[in-house]
């Protein structure tokens, strides 16, 4: 979570069970996050670098976005498609960012500026995975 007077952005925070074994928040904090309860309420933008479950889970993201009705979601077309397959009603707040490898694409979400650029997630394994690097500017 990145927060300033301009807004707040959550990056790769709505992950699934595949993240188990990594350093993740305690269960109580994770429950507050997933329910969009303080201090995780009022998030302006959720970003996911790619659709792998240790970075993004469509069900978890849908639950968060339903609980936080003003939050935008942006990611790769693959991740957005998974989210909308689970929760088509979120389409007005779900933005696909297509950024081929090495190409930088800018997008503004109110006062939050996101520049995404395509990254390889593997040239052999995972070559089909759309993967974004993200530069977020607040203030």
Structural commentary:
- With 139 residues, the protein is an alpha/beta fold.
- The chain has one domain (2-137).
- The chain is 20% helix and 28% strand.
- The protein has three helices and eight strands.
- The protein has a five-stranded mixed sheet with strand order 1-2-3-4-5, covered by helices on one side. A three-stranded antiparallel sheet has the order 6-7-8, with no helix packed on it.
- Helix 2 (58-67) packs across helix 3.
- The longest helix is centred in the middle third of the chain and has 10 residues, at 58-67.
- 31% of the residues are buried.
- The mean pLDDT is 90.
β-strand percent reads 25-35%
Shape designation: globular
* Main β-sheet description: 5 strands, mixed
H/E topology pattern: EEHEHEHEEEE
Give the proportion of residues in helices: 10-25%
| Number of structurally distinct domains | 1
If helices are DSSP runs of H or I spanning 4 or more residues, what is the number of helices? Answer: 3
Q: Which ranges are low-confidence, i.e. pLDDT below 50, for 5 or more consecutive residues?
A: none
Instruction: Give the radius of gyration.
Output: 14 Å
Oligomeric status? single chain
Mean pLDDT: 90
Strand order of the largest sheet: 1-2-3-4-5
Structural class: alpha/beta
N-C termini distance: 15 Å
Record field, number of beta strands:
8
């Amino acid at each position: 979570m990145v927060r300033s007077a301009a807004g707040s952005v959550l990056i790769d925070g709505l992950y699934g069970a595949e993240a188990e074994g990594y350093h993740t928040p305690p269960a109580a904090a994770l429950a507050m996050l997933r329910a969009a309860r303080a201090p995780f309420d009022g998030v302006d933008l959720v970003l996911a670098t790619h659709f792998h479950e240790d970075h993004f889970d469509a069900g978890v993201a849908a639950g968060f976005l339903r609980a936080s009705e003003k939050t935008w979601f942006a990611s790769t077309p693959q991740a957005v498609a998974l989210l909308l397959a689970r929760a088509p009603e979120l389409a007005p707040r779900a933005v696909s960012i297509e950024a081929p490898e090495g190409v930088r694409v800018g997008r503004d979400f109110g006062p939050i500026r996101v520049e995404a650029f395509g990254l390889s997630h593997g040239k052999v394994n995972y070559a089909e995975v759309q993967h974004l690097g993200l530069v977020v500017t607040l203030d």
